[in-house]
């Protein structure tokens, strides 16, 4: 297909497509004449992936270039490709050095060991988790530290769904990266929402009291577990 | 205690304390002379709460003023106070109108009904969840929609831990608001980290392959489930 059709199919403006090409995110088309080239389905897929990474991964062009280069590198194994994809959507926030941090390092290590989880202390998610635990300790929210194991339980259930969703076959590397990046970034928001929605239900069970009149939705029945 | 001691006890600079007082987040002290006042434990607690809300809730002064006013309003029931606290840490992102949104509304309603969760369609978490589901549909990630129930399972486990943590006794309203706001905002980050850490463990089980040499931590044994 021509550039105009590529733009129409993907809904991405021609100047943006050209920009992605200059930045190395998209391979050039097959030249068919002076100033003309032919594009195939692989260009459509790559463009959709790039847009998904820009929109949902909130990733910089440099990071996307690195990721697409990994997709195109046949020597890179799938597992490492997915690990790289996951790291791009993981914020890394280091704890301030000190006793709270040391304690938090030990606490997280013990938690993951007891659960048989893979331990890579340099992983951004691991570093950030240490920072969160140190913070909770510092502000005196020790009660939340006691809920850690239950949180890990919930997280493991969600992760199992994530991995099942990805499926055993990750030979379609473009799809796999898309699932990891969209699934992780958009999924975090979804999980945060579900957590809040579940909280009010669980809290209502405990406090055994209905919503106040102002909050009640007129058109919708308040569904309850029988 | 005097202002200087209040500042020392909380670690909050005097000008910041005075600012909070002018903004109505903190009650004035008991006057003990010209330009002097006496502060009590309730001032220490309130200051710690305000700092927690500023640092972890990322909340504006106006929102914090609203929250502290609710804490101080004895006519407001605990359940409503906690609902208000939770809303302040919930992002609201509305879906674009259209068929994806309509479909997403129905999907979320069905999911929550089937689970017996409380349904309040105007809740910010509900609105945002509709937006996320519409987005996933629009970008063609229908597979993630199928994982919804598993996500809700995980979220419910986490929410149960949240509510147990809060405890049945919420008569200490300051503590309850602090737990809800810190627990929700910091907790989201913690859960996102645990999800990623669990993902690599679960993925490793499936792909049945150890970490590559470059990722292995030298000093720490790779703990595995036996």
Automatic annotation (TrEMBL), chains A, B:
PANTHER family listed in its UniProt record: HTH-TYPE TRANSCRIPTIONAL REGULATOR ADHR, REDOX-CYCLING DRUG-SENSING TRANSCRIPTIONAL ACTIVATOR SOXR
Record domain HTH merR-type: where: 1-70
Highest rank taxon of the organism: Bacteria
SUPFAM superfamilies listed in its UniProt record: Putative DNA-binding domain
Keyword field contains Manganese: no
Keyword field contains DNA-binding: yes
Record protein name field: MerR family transcriptional regulator
Swiss-Prot/TrEMBL keywords: DNA-binding
Pfam families recorded: MerR_1
